[in-house]
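Lab notes, practical 5.
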Amino acid sequence: MRVTQLVANILCLMFLLLPASMPVQADSHPGYIYDSVNVDIAIKPNSDLQISELQKFDFLSGDFHGGYRLIPTDRLVSIDNVEVWEDNKGYPLNPEVRDWIKKRILTGEVIGKEENGYATWTEGNRFWIGWWFPTTMSGSRNIEVKYTARGALRIHDDTDRLYWKAIWPDRTAVINEANITVRLPSGIDPKQLKIEHHGAAAAYHVKEDGSAIIFTATNITPAQETELDITWPHGLIDAQAPAWQKEVEKAEAEAQAHQERMAYYESNVKPYINLSMFLLTLLIVLAAILWIKRVFKQYGPASTVPRDHGSQYSPPDKLAPALVEILVSGRSSRGMTATIFDLAHRRIIQIEEIRQKATLFTNRDLVLTRLKDDYDYDFEKMVSEELASPEGARLSAKQTGMAMLLKEFGKSAESEAFSQGFFTHAPSQSIKRLLLPGILIMVFSMLIMILLSVLLFDYVEFIFLPFLALTITGVVAIILSHKLISYTEEGAGRAAAWKAFGKYLRQMTRDRQLAADQLNTWDSYFPFAIIFGLTKPWISQFARMDASAPVWFIAYHRPGDSGAGTAMTSSLSSVKSAFSNMVTAISGSSGGSGGSGGSGGGGGGGGGGGGGAI
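Output from the prediction step:
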C-alpha cells in the first residue's frame, strides 16, 4: 500500500472511531411525590405578597419526619408572618426544629421529637421555613405554608410587575398537578395585563372581573420551575421601587444585551468561523499527508521486508538473539534478557535461583556466575561483566545501574547490527524522524485543544477540530515511525527469514508434535522465543512434556548466603515456577518483556428556591 493511501486511511479511521460523548443522568427516586401543589399569591394594595403554598405529599417508601422551604431573598425586602398548617391545624413555633432539620439534611440522622413544630431562619440570602412531624412512612400529609413577602414587586413609572417563581426548581420529586392563583389589585382592566410564564408548560385564564389569574400545570418534573411574569399599569398599588430593583434590572439589561449580541453572533458570525475551522482542519490533514509522504520519500526504506518468506524450521544463521530483535523490530527491549539466557546456554555464565526462608515469607534472588570469557560481541561482554562475576553476583545488587546498562546495551546491539550492513541508517535514528515530531505534535495539540475548547467552545463549537487533526497526525506519525526503518537488500532478506522462524516457534508452542521434535534441545531456541514474545507459552509447553531443566539453571534452597544448598530436581515441570520467576526477575530487571504477547427560561424572578420532605 502506498504511504499516501495508508496515512489517509489511518486518519479517516481514527476520526470515525472517536466516541460520542453522551451525558448520563442518574435516575433517583426520593421516596415521595407531590400529589398536588396549590399556590395562592395575593397582591396587597401596599405591594406586599400574601402567599399560601398548600403541598400534598404522598409518601411511597422510607421514613419521613418533616420538610422545608427555602426562598432566595435577593429580590425581595423581607419575609415575615410565617405560619405552617396541616389539615386546618397550626404547627407551633419551636426553634429546636431548625437543628432537627439541618441534622436530618446533612447526615440523615433523626434527633427530633415525635411532635409537630416549625422554625424559620436565614442563612446568607436564603430564608428557611422548616417543619417537623411524627415519623411517617406511608400515606399523605397536606402541609400549608403561609408567609408575607415584602418588597417583591418591581415598580416602574408606567407599569408594575410581579416576577415570581411560584413553583420552586430546587427539588427532587415530581409534582403531579400544580394550581397557581394570582389575586390582582382591584381596578385592573384584563385587557391591560401582560401575562407571561416560563419553565413548565402551563395553561391559564383570567377571571372575567379581572380579579385573578389562574395557572394550571401537570407532571412538573424535578428541577422544573414555573415562573410568572405579570405586568399591569402603574398606580394601582401604593409602593416605591425596592432597593434591590435598580441593580438587578441593570444586571438583567446587561444580560439581555449580551444575549442579543450572542444571538447576532450565532446567526451571522459563528457559522463562518465554524466553516473556517473545518476548512483549516482539511488543510491540516492534507499537510499531514504531504509531510509524512515527504519524510518517507526522503528517508524511507531502501528495501522492504517480504511479507511471506515461506517456512523456516531452524535458525537461518548464527545471529545473536539481541541482533535478531534489532533486525526484525528495529528496537531492543527483550534483547538483554535473551542475551543473558543465550550466554547461559553457551555455558559462559550460570544462573542460580536461591531461596532463603524468613519469618513470614521466602526471599528469592538470582546469582549469575561467570564461567569463562568467550564472547562474540561487545554487548555480550558488557552484560556478562556488569551482571555476573566468577564468585557469583546477586542480581538484586545490580538494580541501581540497570536502566543505564539497558540503554548502553541497546546502543551497542544497534551499532553492531548497523555495522553488519543490515540497515542503511541506524534504526533509532530512522524512527526518530517521525517519532519525536509525532510526540511533540500530539502532546502540545492536545493541551491547546483542551484549553481552547474550555475557553471558546460557546463561541466556536469547531475550535477543537484543527487541534484534533493535529493530535491524530501526531498519533499517526508515531504509529508509522517504525516503518521508516531502512533495510539494505541483505538486511530485508535476513529479517524475513528470522520472522518466518519466529512463526515456526509460535506454532511450536501450540503444536505438541512439533515441540516433541525439539524436546531435548528446547532451551537452545529459548533465547529466540524470548525475542518473539513467547516466553510463558514456551515454558508451559515443554514443562507439560517433562522436558529436562536446562543444565545452566540451578534452583537452590539455601539456609544462608553461603554453603551448598539443596538443589531441586532437574525436570522442567518440577522447577517451572522457579524458572518462570527467574525469567520474570531478569526480564523485569533488564527492562525487557518476557510475556506471552505477539511480536508485533426567564430566570429573573423572585421566589423559587427549593423544598421537599426529609
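Observations recorded by the TA: The first strand starts at residue 32 and ends at 43. The mean pLDDT is 87.
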